[in-house]
Amino acid sequence: MELKDADKTAVRPPDSHLDLLERPLFAHFATLAGDGSPRVNPMWFLWDNQAGVFKLTHTSQRHNYRFLQRSPRVALSVTDPDDQYRYIQVRGEIEHVEPDPAGAFYNTLQQRYRGRTSEVRDRDVRVVLTLRPTAFKVRG
Question: In terms of CATH, what superfamily is 5-139?
Fold first, then answer.
């Protein structure tokens, strides 16, 4: 799934909340189920400041992946653990899904979040999701 070039806008997070994207904090990732109801899951992510996109990992066997096939519109939020009233909310679309059969990106996120890596047992069904933001909202 690819967004058209005209739909790719350079929406950037405010500098005041960039630290929430640079730290290894969990994102609350929202997708839309087949009936249109939202589903939210904690997810690891990597913010690519240069490209202006989020990268997440998932498997092609889970419900969120199937939901994204139907509707690539998503949202995520990241809360500051030191001040729960400070957060950043992101709305956007999954612009690209790339197979990750070696689990390389999952290992990148393991290192970021756990400080170590281990075998990626489901590597054969791993994918990298690229989220292009369309809007940011912040508080605190």
Answer: Electron Transport, Fmn-binding Protein; Chain A (2.30.110.10)
